[in-house]
């Protein structure tokens, strides 16, 4: 009996063509569906089988490692045998001429019910749970050149995401920080809730504020807090709305989709588009066609996505927009419901400073804190600039030196800012009033 199995296995493993009459069934799991959509079952299967192969290899190690330096733990080269509820199965990874990989599962017809009924589910679930335990988060970026050959067909390029940012070290108003944390937590545990109210399990955040106030840092902290992957979407590198759709539907669940500096992304504001149209009128037909082909992502494309396809494509996704200029954004883009939460990151407050002092200098209090507090009240300095002053030079922490440095640069900046305010008043009287007016509407 053993011999029979061994022979059968040999035949299978020798890439014998399985004929129509074969008692064996083969099921394929391609890495990409429709050439661009990553098949997440593929990764889970790979992880599960990788763990199996390593198990086996560890047993083999003692006797084999010395003789055969060819013994690699890499899954792709191995055929893995598995057994589940008495059913023997064989996994093999095959690569086609275009470089696309497929997991092939072979088993005897006898086991069909068990395999399709529960084994596959078991493999994918095991794989996902192993992935979660050993999870390395990933940072995906869309690839402007779309080099299909070297990019293995994927629209997204990824690297391991290792950023130390956390909510603990993020310097901002503590109650605002808590609000964001609570919101994220509610989202994470919201599966049943979203189902109950019949809404897609998605959430949108708009982070706004001047440069260096921690918007990007907060996104990293969010990803670390939730163990989500980040998809950093570069809108200006996307040719058109259909490419945008492809990219977004190719993202996985438990991820944060980030669009930074949304105000700088082409064609998002009506104004800029109008300017283009004016230009276009003067051009001949051919040129116009070319321009249209080149036309980038439009505001309506993005809004359609958020409202429509967005809700249809998978679950458990967060979308984050950042901007330095809230006032430049089209109201349609930021109305509530599209962006569920607006978070303002602003100049360094004393509360925020205390977090930075703890992070950088391990300091809870200091005689200079009082002076710094009063300086921060009427001086605009971004946390990034404060942090820079607190950073140790040459690895030597000089608390007094750092704080004195900070006080000096705050004083300098306060003088500058006061001067600027005066200039503003002289140049355009009533300018300030106008700003308040606009803010009210
Ligand atoms: N609120 C903050 N808490 C802690 N560190 C901060 C904070 N803000 C800025 N920093 C520090 O300053 C650096 C720059 O901040 P970050 O890139 O998050 O700013 P940003 O708001 O994204 O700016 P930009 O608008 O230019 O993109 C970070 O690497 C971080 O070390
Ligand atoms: Mg940033």
TrEMBL record:
Its cofactor is Mg(2+). Keywords: ATP-binding, Hydrolase, Magnesium, Nucleotide-binding, Signal. Pfam families: AAA, AAA_assoc, AAA_lid_At3g28540. The keyword Transit peptide does not apply. GO terms for molecular function: ATP binding; ATP hydrolysis activity. Residues 201-349 form the AAA+ ATPase domain. It catalyses: ATP + H2O = ADP + phosphate + H(+). The keyword Transport does not apply. GO terms for biological process: response to stress. Residues 413-432 are annotated as: Disordered. Residues 413-426 have a biased composition (Basic and acidic residues). Belongs to the AAA ATPase family. BCS1 subfamily. PANTHER family: BCS1 AAA-TYPE ATPASE. This is AAA+ ATPase domain-containing protein. It comes from Brassica carinata.
């Amino acid at each position: 009996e053993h011999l029979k199995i061994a022979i059968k296995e040999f035949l299978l493993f020798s890439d014998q063509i399985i004929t129509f009459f074969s008692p064996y069934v083969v099921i394929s799991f391609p890495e990409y569906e429709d050439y661009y959509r990553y098949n997440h079952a593929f990764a889970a299967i790979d992880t599960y089988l990788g763990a199996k192969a390593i198990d086996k290899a560890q047993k083999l190690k003692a006797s084999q490692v010395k003789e055969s330096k060819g013994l690699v733990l890499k899954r792709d080269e191995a055929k893995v045998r598995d057994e589940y509820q008495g059913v023997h199965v064989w996994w093999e990874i095959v690569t086609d001429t275009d470089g696309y990989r497929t997991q092939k599962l072979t088993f005897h017809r006898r086991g069909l019910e068990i395999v399709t009924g529960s084994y596959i589910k078991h493999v994918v679930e095991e794989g996902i749970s192993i992935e979660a335990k050993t999870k390395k988060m990933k940072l995906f970026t869309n690839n402007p050149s779309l080099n299909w050959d070297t990019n293995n067909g994927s629209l997204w390029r990824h690297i391991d995401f290792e950023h130390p940012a956390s909510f603990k070290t993020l310097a901002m108003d503590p109650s605002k920080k808590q609000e964001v944390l609570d919101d994220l937590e509610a989202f994470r545990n919201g599966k049943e809730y979203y189902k109950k109210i019949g809404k897609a399990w998605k959430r949108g955040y708009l982070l706004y504020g001047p440069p260096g106030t921690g918007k990007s840092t907060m996104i990293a902290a969010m990803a670390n807090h939730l163990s989500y992957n980040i998809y950093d979407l570069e809108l200006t590198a996307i040719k058109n709305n259909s490419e945008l759709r492809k990219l977004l539907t190719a993202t996985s669940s438990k991820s944060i989709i980030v669009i930074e500096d949304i105000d700088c992304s082409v064609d998002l504001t009506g104004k800029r588009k109008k300017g283009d149209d004016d230009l276009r009128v003067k051009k001949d037909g051919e040129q116009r066609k070319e321009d249209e082909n080149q036309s980038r992502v439009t505001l309506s494309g993005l809004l359609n996505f958020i409202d429509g396809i967005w809700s249809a494509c998978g679950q458990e996704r967060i979308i984050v927009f950042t901007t330095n200029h809230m006032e430049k954004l089209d109201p349609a883009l930021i109305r509530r419901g599209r962006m569920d939460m607006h978070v303002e990151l602003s100049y360094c407050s004393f509360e925020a400073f205390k977090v930075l002092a703890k992070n950088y200098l391990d300091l809870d209090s200091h005689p200079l804190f009082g002076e710094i507090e009063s300086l921060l009240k009427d001086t605009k300095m971004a946390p990034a600039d404060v942090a820079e002053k607190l950073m140790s030079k040459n690895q030597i922490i000089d608390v007094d030196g750092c704080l004195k440095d900070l006080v000096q640069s705050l004083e300098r900046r306060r003088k500058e800012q006061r001067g600027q305010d005066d200039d503003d008043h002289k140049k355009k009287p009533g300018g300030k009033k106008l700003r308040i007016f606009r803010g009210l509407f």
